[in-house]
TrEMBL record:
<dbReference type="GO" id="GO:0042790">
    <property type="term" value="P:nucleolar large rRNA transcription by RNA polymerase I"/>
</dbReference>
<dbReference type="GO" id="GO:0070860">
    <property type="term" value="C:RNA polymerase I core factor complex"/>
</dbReference>
<protein>
    <recommendedName>
        <fullName>Transcription factor domain-containing protein</fullName>
    </recommendedName>
</protein>
<feature type="region of interest" description="Disordered">
    <location>
        <begin position="156"/>
        <end position="178"/>
    </location>
</feature>
<dbReference type="Pfam" id="PF04090">
    <property type="entry name" value="Rrn11"/>
</dbReference>
<dbReference type="InterPro" id="IPR053029">
    <property type="entry name" value="RNA_pol_I-specific_init_factor"/>
</dbReference>
<dbReference type="GO" id="GO:0001181">
    <property type="term" value="F:RNA polymerase I general transcription initiation factor activity"/>
</dbReference>
<feature type="compositionally biased region" description="Acidic residues">
    <location>
        <begin position="160"/>
        <end position="176"/>
    </location>
</feature>
<dbReference type="GO" id="GO:0001164">
    <property type="term" value="F:RNA polymerase I core promoter sequence-specific DNA binding"/>
</dbReference>
<dbReference type="GO" id="GO:0017025">
    <property type="term" value="F:TBP-class protein binding"/>
</dbReference>
<dbReference type="InterPro" id="IPR007224">
    <property type="entry name" value="TIF_Rrn11"/>
</dbReference>
């Protein structure tokens, strides 16, 4: 019988066993993620992060694995997760709709996870191409935007379902001929949009605090994200009104709900005018941020292209005197 390639007590054999252990944990992690079992996936991820390889602890930044931790934290408190090939379960408490795939607690933990990564791996001039806070900030803000939009959409869908079943057909029109269900629904939707607007403004404020200093002020990803958030805020300024401006609804193809601006009270028209003015300001901000992001992406080539150095004109020789 031939001798083993690595003696049982040799460092090479121990390293091979450690790699096999890592491969098994990675397989378990992937399978749990595919099946939506984020609780077990979190346990496997924790074991992987506590391992040491060649005397060094595991680094979540390798091969962009750091996003796995945030995804697990975001979704592991989910009460019921769909399996592969099955229809997503519904919750009776949500009126038969598919519940959100995350919880407030999960979002808070995922956000804290990114905050720790930012503190533990700051941007270093000596190693500018390493995975650092410059990569974690856009991911954290992107997650924040996703959660805010999904929660808003979920609440608006809930309002649609509840309002469509609450009033009977004969109760829809009041003595003034107005659709009471529609008015109430618009007010509820505007409130949800207002909460979404608050989240968007918090995100914008946080990004603005970053853009005050390099290297974040020169990051194309963060600048582009800030520009998109301004566009988002601009739309929400109009959508958070009970009666959005008709010109905004026409511009984006929304259902104007038979709204005629000339028939609206003065207070309503003033709110609409103010919202549209603020929206123009946000659009202007967005254009500035997006243009700055494009310039940063061009980098040195852009600066050299727009750098005009005029060569000094040759001195003219004096004309001979005759």
């Amino acid at each position: 019988m031939s001798t083993p390639l690595y003696p049982p007590q040799s460092p090479a054999h121990a390293g091979s066993l450690r790699l096999q252990h890592l491969a098994a944990l990675t397989t378990i992690l992937h399978r749990c993620l595919l099946q939506g079992d984020f609780t077990r996936a979190g346990r496997a991820w924790g074991l992987i992060m506590r391992e040491q390889f060649r005397g060094k602890p595991a680094d979540a930044r390798l091969e962009t694995r750091w996003g796995i931790g945030a995804e697990i934290l975001l979704r592991r408190d989910q009460q019921s997760a769909p399996s592969i090939g099955h229809i997503a379960p519904t919750d009776a408490a949500t009126g038969g709709r598919t519940p959100l795939p995350f919880t407030h607690k999960g979002f808070a933990e995922a956000k804290e996870y990114y905050e720790r990564l930012i503190l533990n791996h700051p941007y270093l001039k000596t190693n500018p191409h390493s995975i650092s806070a410059l990569h974690f900030y856009p991911a954290m803000f992107g997650l924040w935007v996703y959660v805010a939009q999904e929660e808003s959409q979920f609440e608006r869908d809930r309002i649609d379902d509840e309002e469509s079943d609450e009033l009977s057909d004969e109760d829809l029109i009041d003595e003034y001929g107005e659709n009471r269900e529609s008015n109430r629904k618009q007010a509820l939707v505007a409130k949800v949009r207002g909460q979404e607007l608050e989240q968007a403004q918090q995100i914008a404020t946080r990004i603005d605090s970053l853009l005050g200093s390099p290297p974040y002020s020169d990051s194309p990803e963060i600048l582009e994200l800030r520009g998109m958030v301004s566009l988002w805020i601009g739309d929400l300024l109009a959508l958070s009104l009970v009666k959005p401006p008709p010109e905004f609804l026409d511009e984006y193809g929304y259902d104007a709900m038979d709204t005629d601006g000339t028939d609206e009270p003065f207070e309503v028209r003033r709110e609409q005018t103010l919202a549209m003015e603020q929206r123009k300001v946000e659009i202007h901000k967005s254009e500035e941020f997006l243009e700055k992001a494009r310039k940063r992406r061009r980098g040195v080539s852009y600066n050299m292209e727009h750098l005009h150095i005029e060569s000094p004109s040759a001195p003219t020789s004096p004309s001979p005197l005759y």
